Amino acid sequence: MLSIPDWVRGRTADTPKAALLSRSRFDRLREHDVIRTAEERGYLLSPSKSFVLEQCYGKSQKENREDAQKIYDIQIVHMSQAHLRNIGYIQSCTRLQVCILSNNYITRFDALAACTMLVKLDLH
């Protein structure tokens, strides 16, 4: 019979704990290698100021130079499946209320602490 904590971890009573730890370590190393290779080949992005403005306002870079201060006024960011590696300049959107960043490769979200007006954060 399985206890709830063992069932949640995907472990049965017959599975040795050391085997599960080594498997998870292998998986972590493999994931790290895949992400490093993707970064080296340019598959993963770090959103720059112009990228954020272009995604939110739909303008070209020439027009973004005129609207450089508008990054602070952005209230909604929807960048799911954008192959983002980190938060980048999204943290500069201090009036951000809705942030949808699902299906990306972001591992740390502490940079969003500057977005004090954030109401909804979607990361699934």
Label the structural class: mainly alpha
- What is the number of beta strands? 3
Q: What is the helix/strand order?
A: HHHHEEE
Q: Per the principal axes of the C-alpha atoms, what is the gross shape?
A: globular
Structure description:
The chain is mostly helical. The chain contains 4 helices and 3 strands, in the order H-H-H-H-E-E-E. The longest helix has 24 residues. The N terminus is likely disordered.
Give a brief outline of the structure.
With 124 residues, the protein is mainly alpha-helical.
Attribute tags:
124 residues; mainly alpha; 4 helices; three-stranded parallel sheet
Topology record:
Blueprint: H1 4-8, H2 17-40, H3 49-57, H4 61-66, E1 76-78, E2 98-100, E3 120-122
